[in-house]
From TrEMBL:
<dbReference type="InterPro" id="IPR037272">
    <property type="entry name" value="SNS_sf"/>
</dbReference>
<feature type="transmembrane region" description="Helical">
    <location>
        <begin position="326"/>
        <end position="349"/>
    </location>
</feature>
<feature type="transmembrane region" description="Helical">
    <location>
        <begin position="399"/>
        <end position="418"/>
    </location>
</feature>
<feature type="transmembrane region" description="Helical">
    <location>
        <begin position="482"/>
        <end position="502"/>
    </location>
</feature>
<feature type="transmembrane region" description="Helical">
    <location>
        <begin position="278"/>
        <end position="296"/>
    </location>
</feature>
<feature type="transmembrane region" description="Helical">
    <location>
        <begin position="234"/>
        <end position="258"/>
    </location>
</feature>
<feature type="transmembrane region" description="Helical">
    <location>
        <begin position="438"/>
        <end position="458"/>
    </location>
</feature>
<feature type="transmembrane region" description="Helical">
    <location>
        <begin position="361"/>
        <end position="379"/>
    </location>
</feature>
<dbReference type="InterPro" id="IPR000175">
    <property type="entry name" value="Na/ntran_symport"/>
</dbReference>
<keyword id="KW-0472">Membrane</keyword>
<feature type="transmembrane region" description="Helical">
    <location>
        <begin position="181"/>
        <end position="199"/>
    </location>
</feature>
<keyword id="KW-1133">Transmembrane helix</keyword>
<keyword id="KW-0812">Transmembrane</keyword>
<keyword id="KW-0813">Transport</keyword>
<dbReference type="Pfam" id="PF00209">
    <property type="entry name" value="SNF"/>
</dbReference>
<feature type="transmembrane region" description="Helical">
    <location>
        <begin position="12"/>
        <end position="29"/>
    </location>
</feature>
<feature type="transmembrane region" description="Helical">
    <location>
        <begin position="41"/>
        <end position="61"/>
    </location>
</feature>
Length: 519
């Protein structure tokens, strides 16, 4: 590449952008129901263990990979992993490992974001409906209301397109004027709105029954129920760490590729983890769950995925100032989602830039791509008149949960073993703190990869038991209408993986052809 690579404008901008990348729907929508479902306080044990064994080491590896690749002009994962791997294996083998990493990262950024953009659209729609009183009529059932929402083409498509346009616009304006500006506006607002909602939640009193207080809700999520703690909940905790920290996706690396060669990564990586965990364990845990508890009691803890869009609207309309607080809640979700989706969007544009395209044109192409991959997600409920979201579920089971972990394994092996000692040196260059040798050996070389392998074995076993591996997966066995949607999802995933591999392998070969041919 001839032109100079873009850089972050300021340290603050970088940290807020990285926090924006990590803090997403995972914190406010996914975390509360995962914790409630998987043992409350007992969930915190595997959760914090995964944070230390997987989250922190991988975050350091990813910042390292990104800054290292950026030095060679790369913003995508395939070439970054190639550059690391060639320190330890033959260039041809390294190109295949890089190709695999690039293929998985591509499938995550295309397909995960393909449905995530829809959920962002829903949150914008619901912010609007909260303000305008759309679901405030107590005669309507909020569950039925949500179903009719996702089956209403006008609402779904309008808010989805608005979300996509914001993403495209921010990415098109570039790292400093687009991504950084959006993060500087939205991230502080997320924390401010979050604090307002926590205060409102904790002052709810006991509106329904004397012992259904918000504090009892906090108790519910924090007090350990050891009997609910098992292998499956441990897997859920580790999966949540991957998802919430944006690990195994390639997007932390993409943002880190805009660092200068001597910028600190150790403290900045820690800051990203801390800001995300603040927005997850403190804010994600202190709003939705206690509100639900105060109004619905222990039963309300079972609302699962529908917590944000069904249980909470039902409560907002029952509480004082509910229209405003409902809007604040959905705006938090919206901003958290947007700042994460920008990272995925930017990844794909960076990939097109590596192929020689201009940023503007790249942004328009990615806009079109997201319309195509997002279409089945939106069309399924509209056309089948169902609300099972089978296409989304199938994509999420693989791309949003399983692939992240596989990619994490490739990343940590490329860093810890293939690049090895040189990776530690690279990691510590310019660092305000230094990662000690023992941490590198104990975690990045041993504990982190072994834990990821155990996680993969466990998940594969669980997937087998849940019937996800079957030709017709169990969750749609009895709904013939949905089977084609699941099969379509599978075909799309296979195509995207193959295309991603070929594209990455060719990019690597194109740039490093000599050494591959002589190696
Ligand atoms: N870390 C993000 C979250 O918590 C995950 C994500 C990033 C999802 C980018 C989609 C796009 O929501
Ligand atoms: Na997150």
């Amino acid at each position: 590449m001839t032109e100079k690579r873009e850089n972050w404008g300021s340290k603050l901008g970088l940290i807020l952008a990285m926090a924006g990348n990590a803090v997403g729907l995972g914190n406010f929508w996914r975390y509360p129901y995962q914790a409630a479902k998987n043992g409350g306080g007992a969930f915190m044990v595997p959760y914090f263990a995964a944070l230390i064994i997987l989250g922190i080491p991988l975050m350091l590896c990813e910042w390292n990979q990104g800054r290292f690749g950026g030095k060679y002009g790369h913003g995508t994962l395939g070439p970054m992993v190639y550059l690391q791997a060639r320190e330890g294996v033959k260039p041809r083998t390294a190109a295949i490992i890089g190709g695999l990493a690039g293929a998985i990262a591509f499938s995550v950024t295309v397909l995960l974001n393909g449905y995530y953009n829809h959920i962002i659209g829903w949150t914008l729609g619901y912010s609007f409906l909260s303000l305008t009183g759309g679901y405030m009529d107590k005669a309507v059932d909020t569950g039925a209301y949500f179903v009719s929402y996702i089956q209403d083409p006008t609402k779904v498509i309008i808010f989805w397109l608005i979300a996509l346009a914001i993403l495209g616009f921010a990415v098109m304006r570039g790292v400093q004027k687009g991504i950084e500006v959006v993060a500087k506006i939205m991230m502080p607002l997320i924390y401010v709105f979050g604090i307002i909602l926590i205060i409102r939640t904790l002052t709810l009193g006991a509106p329904v029954k004397p012992d259904w207080t918000p504090i009892a809700g906090l108790n519910y999520i924090w007090s350990p129920r050891w009997s609910d703690l098992n292998w499956t909940s441990a897997l859920a905790a580790a999966g949540q760490i991957f998802f919430t920290l944006s690990l195994g996706m390639g997007i932390i690396q993409n943002y880190a590729s805009y660092l200068k060669a001597d910028d600190d990564i150790v403290v900045s990586g820690f800051a990203t983890v801390s800001l995300n965990e603040l927005a997850e364990v403190i804010m994600g845990g202190s709003i939705a769950i206690p509100i639900c508890y105060a109004f619905l009691g222990p039963e309300g803890m079972k609302s699962g995925v529908g917590l944000s869009f069904i249980a909470l609207p039902n409560i907002f309309r029952a509480m004082g100032g509910g229209q405003l607080f409902g809007a604040l809640w959905f705006l938090i979700l919206f901003m958290a989602g947007i700042t994460s989706a920008i990272a995925m969007y930017n990844y794909l544009v960076a990939m097109l830039e590596e192929m020689g395209l201009q940023k503007k044109l790249g942004s328009v192409i990615v806009f079109g791509l997201y319309i195509i991959v997002g279409l089945p997600v939106g069309l399924e409920p509209i056309l089948t008149k169902t609300a099972d979201l089978a296409y989304l579920t199938e994509v999420d089971n693989w791309v949003g949960s399983y692939f992240l972990v596989v990619l994490g394994l490739i990343e940590v092996i490329a860093t810890g073993w293939l690049m090895g000692g040189k990776a530690l040196e690279e990691m510590n260059r310019g660092g305000y703190w230094k990662v000690p040798q023992w941490f590198f050996t104990l975690f990045i070389q041993i504990l982190t990869p072994l834990t990821i392998i155990a996680l993969l074995i466990g998940s594969t076993r669980d997937y087998y038991k849940a019937g996800y591996l079957k030709l017709i997966p169990s969750f749609v066995e009895n709904s013939p209408k949905l089977i084609p949607w699941v099969q379509a999802a599978r075909i799309v995933m296979i195509i995207v993986l193959i295309a991603g591999f070929i594209q990455t392998y060719r990019t690597i070969k194109g740039k490093y052809i000599k050494e591959i041919e002589t190696g």
